[in-house]
Amino acid sequence: MIKVTVWNEFLHERKGEVVKKVYPEGIHAQIKSFLDTEEDITVRTATLDEPECGLTEEVLNDTDVLIWWAHMAHEKVPDEIARRVADRVLMGMGMIFLHSAHYSKPMKILLGTTCSLAWRDGSRERLWCTAPTHPIAQGLPLYIDIEREEMYGEFFDVPKPDDVVFTGWYNTGEVFRSVITYVRGHGKIVYIQPGHETNPIYYNPYIQKIIKNAVRFAAPCENLRDTLECSNEPAPLEK
Amino acid sequence: MIKVTVWNEFLHERKGEVVKKVYPEGIHAQIKSFLDTEEDITVRTATLDEPECGLTEEVLNDTDVLIWWAHMAHEKVPDEIARRVADRVLMGMGMIFLHSAHYSKPMKILLGTTCSLAWRDGSRERLWCTAPTHPIAQGLPLYIDIEREEMYGEFFDVPKPDDVVFTGWYNTGEVFRSVITYVRGHGKIVYIQPGHETNPIYYNPYIQKIIKNAVRFAAPCENLRDTLECSNEPAPLEK
Amino acid sequence: MIKVTVWNEFLHERKGEVVKKVYPEGIHAQIKSFLDTEEDITVRTATLDEPECGLTEEVLNDTDVLIWWAHMAHEKVPDEIARRVADRVLMGMGMIFLHSAHYSKPMKILLGTTCSLAWRDGSRERLWCTAPTHPIAQGLPLYIDIEREEMYGEFFDVPKPDDVVFTGWYNTGEVFRSVITYVRGHGKIVYIQPGHETNPIYYNPYIQKIIKNAVRFAAPCENLRDTLECSNEPAPLEK
Amino acid sequence: MIKVTVWNEFLHERKGEVVKKVYPEGIHAQIKSFLDTEEDITVRTATLDEPECGLTEEVLNDTDVLIWWAHMAHEKVPDEIARRVADRVLMGMGMIFLHSAHYSKPMKILLGTTCSLAWRDGSRERLWCTAPTHPIAQGLPLYIDIEREEMYGEFFDVPKPDDVVFTGWYNTGEVFRSVITYVRGHGKIVYIQPGHETNPIYYNPYIQKIIKNAVRFAAPCENLRDTLECSNEPAPLEK
């Protein structure tokens, strides 16, 4: 069983009428709902306004894969919580950053770059699979159409990904490395670009499939790590 | 002309008799001395005890490649200075981390992992070239012997490098990804493992050649970047 | 169920007394024997002296992962069979090349380089895990000792691997990228260096574990490919 | 001085009126003409109908970077010549494949995959820089518009590139990894997608700049290789 925690800042859905209509219970609730249908996945949620953002040591230690949606309140997440999340990833927890979470504190900490990009709302997007053997691409067609999505375009200031699983095309003339993966420490990281709060992206069965695949891909490996520190090895292996 | 700043915490050389004998003027002075002989390189130095660690905005803006040696006082570098250095790298400055600088604040910020490793003093090392076409390997033999060096061994908790230019072999039984490269933002980063303060590593002509090559490799590219921020692009390229 | 075919040229074991003692039924039989114990794997074997080298279209079409051991008779494999194997990999079959199969026709075809290396018999080897989250590394320790193995050393003329799962250390002073992976077309490829015919490598539980993991890693993905050819797409997706 | 040989099958330009109008002296002549203006580059040409395709041992041994344009007569290049070219690349010669040369014998040999793709004539294309620090991207803007080009789209069956320097966007709805690089053996390889014979691509100053940059990038490194064979090393480095 893969234990997923879906974290959402949960502000847009309570403040904006448009967003409320799309996600009346919150983006996290919608993501939870389609992951809940999977037999090997169990889901809880956490939001910004909970104590410690709902990301206590206890919760994180009980999380295999953390999904992160955020947009307007990145700075509201205390540095200490962001560091805690990043350290858990380095210890082996999987991490999926959605859409505007490219600018969240944990993503910036883990990737080390600014994660800045070009943007404009109101494009049609087509995701092209550029790594058909990747676990995240399984069961998905060569391309996926998204009727309306915020354009996130190059240059995307991230480290060269391990894999660019999907490359985005926009009718407005841009491209983007839309679904990308990294390993950092013992943890796997996936960034998935579609997911603007005013569009019903998380109702799209293909996007749901990408997220489900990403959860299984990012689930912790068997090899455990017992420390993030250097280890002094006093005894040489050879004399 | 490539403008290099060699930064050194400059503590070991003043506190320890052994180190003082090897580097009487400091590690930075020795690195400066062999880079100074290159016609296309101009060098200044900076140390921890200078105001702002010698790394004012002015100095950094006038630096093409920053070389960093540090060991016992990583925490003495203020967060603000470390962030300033990292941001300059993301804007395009080259960065070379030497030996124990694997644990420096700027390296951790830029790579996002712990950069932890296994260690023990007192090995012989042999560096094997595993990327013979890489600019940093030019003019160097297939392998380089180092009579005595501190063992830094795997697992080295860094992101998968763009290139592993040299892989280290130790007579005590370990291996290491010893000379590795990354691109982060517009900046190029090189980590070079040999360089323990008690060994005359920076007098070794091969190591000097590696550092000279690394300086030229990491020198800023022609394409400039004018911001680290996202850019809103109101006008679509297509209608 | 993963269908594995173990291919062996099966010459050393019939010609040399030393090898016959180590692998009386042939290397392929020993590999089959330890894979046969896995519930999700079913194994057949094929050898050079069978018609079409035992690698008919029928056999290959019924193979999920092909394991290849060869040394003295690479040239005896007809070009047509080598091409057939490579094409099956590009269509999605997994491929594991063992030890001296680095110089086999299918490996050279698929990787495009010479696959040449430095070699000498009679070393002790230690395999260091340099990618602990990789599926092939799961359940294995940080390092594995091999009492006696042929030294295969750098420079290893292969394309930069997707992952260097294990890096080899030799008591005789060399290093090697010993367990490496690639994706080519829809197929996954693993090269595993230990396995000299005079040493009981394939009785070593760690090496067996590496091969078992490699079989599962290289098993075909769900996404199928229906052609190796270009596709003309007369109808534009946009007008 | 970088010695470039531009190879062209030179058939379209003699058979088709449309192409003849665009490239009256042949595509190779046009490429030669803009490279000839560079002080550090000297150019010769070779075509399919010359003895040994104009690619004798002597010519190849005197070539630093080989540029290859071909489309309708890939099969007319003898296997022996294709192998000779590939071996020269593995020894260190740079290689630039243009447009439909994706399906040439040397490119398939060197990359090991089918190099197949989706295609349709008659799109507008925009090349987006996705690796702004790469030598091939220097002096070029964030994106380049091409008024009319043949669409080459994903899935492009090539190994994961070292770098995707430009990603192509098409008004007809596709994307492509348009300018990509590899190292194979001691040689550097660049593939550049624009260049359909009916379009005046090689008069475009940006494409010319990309090719000039690619020539300098692919020029042989200083480290020489003296053989493509394995080397037996009888004397251990350690006792």
Largest sheet features of chain A? 9 strands, mixed
Span between termini of chain A: 46 Å
CATH topology of the domain at 2-112 and 178-218 in chain A: Rossmann fold
Order of helices and strands of chain A: EHHHEHEHEHEEEEEHE
CATH superfamily of the domain at 2-112 and 178-218 in chain A, by name, is Class I glutamine amidotransferase (GATase) domain
Q: Largest interface, with Cβ-Cβ < 8 Å?
A: A-B, 41 and 41 residues
Shape of chain A: globular
Spatial ordering of strands, largest sheet of chain A: 2-1-3-4-9-8-7-5-6
Count of helices of chain A? 7
Percent strand of chain A equals 25-35%
What is the strand tally of chain A?
10
What oligomerization state is this entry in?
A: homotetramer
Q: State mean pLDDT of chain A (0 to 100 scale).
A: 97
Helix content of chain A: 10-25%
Highest-level CATH class of the domain at 2-112 and 178-218 in chain A:
Alpha Beta
Spatial extent as radius of gyration of chain A? 18 Å
Structural class of chain A: alpha/beta
CATH architectural designation of the domain at 2-112 and 178-218 in chain A: 3-Layer(aba) Sandwich
Enumerate the spans of chain A where pLDDT stays under 50 for 5 or more consecutive residues: none
Summarize the structure in words.
- The structure is a homotetramer of 239-residue chains.
- With 239 residues, the first copy, chain A, is an alpha/beta fold.
- The first copy, chain A, has a domain at 2-112 and 178-218: Rossmann fold (3-Layer(aba) Sandwich), CATH 3.40.50.880.
- Chain A is 24% helix and 31% strand.
- Chain A contains seven helices and ten strands.
- In chain A, strands 2-1-3-4-9-8-7-5-6 form a nine-stranded mixed β-sheet.
- In chain A, a hairpin with a 2-residue loop joins strand 8 (175-184) and strand 9.
- Chain A starts with a strand and ends in a 7-residue tail after the last strand.
- The mean pLDDT of chain A is 97.
- The interface between A and B is large, with 41 and 41 residues.
- Strand 5 of chain C pairs parallel with strand 10 of chain D.
